[in-house]
Write a structure and sequence with these properties.
By secondary structure, the chain is mainly alpha-helical. The protein folds into two domains: about 35 residues; about 250 residues, no CATH class. The chain is about 75% helix and about 0% strand. It has 13 helices and no strands. The longest helix has 29 residues. The chain is globular. It is a multi-pass membrane protein.
Amino acid sequence: MRYLTEPGPEGRVDGERSGMTQLAVRRARSGLARVPALAVLQYYLVGYRRTWRGGVLSSFLLPTLTVLGFGVGVGALIDQGVGGVSYLEWIVGGLLASTALQVAITESSWPVYSSLQWTKIYFAQFAAPLRVADILAGQLAFVLFRVLASATAFLVVTGLLGALRSPWAVLALPVAALLGLAVAAPTFAYAATASSDSWLALLFRFAVIPMTLFAGVFFPVESLPVGLRWLAYVTPLWHAVDLSRAATLGVPPVWSVTGHLLYLAAWVVGGWLLARRALGRKLVV
């Protein structure tokens, strides 16, 4: 009866493998437990692994068409360029920052509203051993990933088109990341408090589009009237545009680098506090 009470060699091997698998799962879970926000990020990355192919074409096609349309098409009408450089080279920094802005707001508007109103994903996450801060941090970490991926694709395309004047252009990537967090956090708070998805369309119509048009992306802010100029200075996009343009052109920014970074960081902190409060009001009963 030994064969009924003692496992054979194959049984022992299978048991050892099962034990090793369970040990690996426990170790992975314990690691995620130490940083719960990583579990939230992992959730979004698993979903993105199944959908990333749909965005690859737009990640490279959109910047190519934008650069060719504005930089080459409009630039052909501006013989003298801007500030001593061609319009194509001048506009790259602004387009990169505006791309980061649009990706960050897109990923933190409808997905947030959907997770609260339609799919109820945040409620399921909160029912697990996750805090409000963990859910928020994981969501913003995924937004940061999307912003960096899009900004990197844009930088590669413009580099291949010969539109980058300086190797310092790589510094535009951390600027794009900081801008992404600066606009994603308050957008998260806005989407979490929206009573209808119509409010999200209004956000793009009355905030994203005006910022993109008047924050120095397509023409120097100094050409605006004084009143509109100061409205542009208030937006986080202009600060990122100035830093990105300085990096891609290899010149000092118009304003202080420290001042730009502190202003964008203030938007991140303020947006985080607002988003955490808004999400907490929805989840904590």
